[in-house]
């Protein structure tokens, strides 16, 4: 894990104040790999493909895996690739077994703003453009090893350009309506008109992440959605 030194940043959607404060925290250098997840499954059989309850993971859970304890026909190619097709429940259980947790949306977005040389690359057009180019690409047949992905200012690999990642409060991206009308609001929808409340309208990649998160449910599994773990600093 590496230390992500706390500070303030402007999230895509904020409250009354423009900037939010993020406390210093620890974050895994890499997303969790297939081999690491296999090690978890060997010790926690309840999370294997044949045993997991559907309330905790949909039918596509670990879809590319051949068996409960085999993650594919070419294990040497993907052992260090990020594990994908795991649900929020599974990711949360994995991190808790390591004595960790999932990062919050604010922590993840704060750490993901870093380029190779800047902790905050909010005004770096090249950084945004590279992010957009990755989001527009189709998934490769084999995801690359996590060590070969983009390394940012904090020493974190793959925050951009590898896989989407679960966050602890992923559903906080859902937009809420005016209080008197909340009862009739469909909370599964990410309303396009909500962009009027965005603090940084040029940050298109953040729009994409928030829209993606808002489409998820905790038991969903997606072929390019992985995770990494975080940890709060002890007082």
Describe this structure in words.
The protein is an alpha+beta fold. The protein has one domain: paralog of FGE (formylglycine-generating enzyme), CATH 3.90.1580. It is 23% helix and 9% strand. The chain is built from 6 helices and 8 strands. The strands form 3 sheets. A 4-stranded antiparallel beta sheet has the order 1-4-8-5. The protein has a two-stranded antiparallel ribbon with strand order 2-3. Strands 6-7 form a two-stranded parallel ribbon. The two termini are 18 Å apart.
Radius of gyration over all CA atoms, rounded: 18 Å
Number of helices: 6
Helix and strand element order: EEEEHHHEHHEHEE
- The dominant shape is globular
CATH class: Alpha Beta
Whole-number total of structural domains: 1
Q: What name does CATH use for the topology?
A: paralog of FGE (formylglycine-generating enzyme)
**Cα distance, first to last residue?**
18 Å
Give the biggest sheet.
4 strands, antiparallel
> Spatial order of the strands in the main sheet?
1-4-8-5
Low-confidence stretches: 175-199
Average pLDDT, all residues: 85
Tally of extended strands? 8
CATH-derived architecture: Alpha-Beta Complex
Class by SSE composition: alpha+beta
- How much of the polypeptide forms β-strand, as a percent range? 5-15%
Portion of residues within helices: 10-25%
Protein name: Formylglycine-generating enzyme family protein
Domain Sulfatase-modifying factor enzyme-like: 1-230
Pfam families: FGE-sulfatase
GO molecular function, one term: formylglycine-generating oxidase activity
């Amino acid at each position: 894990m590496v230390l992500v030194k706390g500070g303030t940043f402007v999230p895509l959607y904020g409250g009354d104040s423009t900037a939010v404060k993020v406390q210093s925290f620890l974050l895994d250098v890499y997303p969790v790999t297939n081999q690491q997840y296999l090690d978890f499954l060997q010790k926690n059989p309840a999370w294997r493909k044949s045993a997991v309850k559907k309330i905790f993971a949909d039918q596509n859970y670990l879809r590319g895996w051949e068996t409960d304890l085999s993650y594919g026909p070419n294990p040497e190619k993907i052992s260090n690739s990020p594990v994908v097709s795991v649900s929020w429940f599974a990711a949360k259980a994995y991190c808790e077994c390591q004595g960790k947790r999932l990062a919050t949306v604010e922590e993840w977005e704060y750490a993901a703003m870093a380029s190779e040389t800047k902790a905050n690359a909010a005004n770096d057009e090249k950084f945004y453009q590279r992010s957009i180019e990755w989001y527009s690409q189709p998934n490769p047949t084999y995801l690359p090893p996590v060590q070969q992905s983009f390394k940012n200012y904090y020493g974190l690999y793959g925050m951009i350009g590898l896989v989407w990642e679960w966050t602890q409060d992923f559903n906080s991206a859902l937009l809420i309506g005016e209080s008197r009308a909340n009862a009739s609001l469909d909370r599964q929808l990410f309303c396009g008109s909500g962009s009027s409340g965005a603090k940084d309208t040029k940050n298109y990649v953040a729009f994409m992440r928030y829209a993606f998160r808002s489409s998820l449910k905790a038991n969903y599994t997606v072929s390019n959605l992985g995770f990494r773990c975080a940890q709060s600093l002890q007082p």
